[in-house]
Amino acid sequence: MPTPARTASGATRYSTVAIILHWLIALGILTLIAMGLVMDHLPLDTMRVFQLYQLHKSIGITVMFLIALRIGWRLAYSAPALPADMPSLEKKEHIWRILLSTDCRFCCP
């Protein structure tokens, strides 16, 4: 089993704050998907749909704020280094996947 690489600060994993932000964003996105499906596919009265839309927008704005906060945190605190024995192609793919997933979270609100 390969040993985890250390960053300059000695970290071998993401910080607790980064992990909490990650899971709050994930929970928020899943909640938004579920709410969107409920609003679109269930026969609800007009006032209930309006209330759900308002809640959906509020949660969406909160998730976008959390994403911005997460990006700021990531810029201020470096991520743990990738394992030294990881193939070069996989390292490049990892970087592109992170950039594209961050871009998609902002461009697809």
TrEMBL record:
It is a multi-pass membrane protein. InterPro entries: Cyt_b561_bac/Ni-Hgenase, Cytochrome_b561_oxidase, Di-haem_cyt_TM. One of its GO terms (molecular function) is metal ion binding. The chain crosses the membrane at residues 20-38, 59-77. GO terms for biological process: respiratory electron transport chain. It comes from the Bacteria. Keywords: Cell membrane, Electron transport, Heme, Iron, Membrane, Metal-binding, Transmembrane, Transmembrane helix, Transport. It is found in: Cell membrane. The keyword Ribosomal protein does not apply. It holds the Pfam family Ni_hydr_CYTB. One of its GO terms (cellular component) is plasma membrane. Residues 13-84 form the Cytochrome b561 bacterial/Ni-hydrogenase domain. Its cofactor is heme b. Belongs to the cytochrome b561 family. This is Cytochrome b/b6 domain-containing protein. It comes from Brytella acorum.
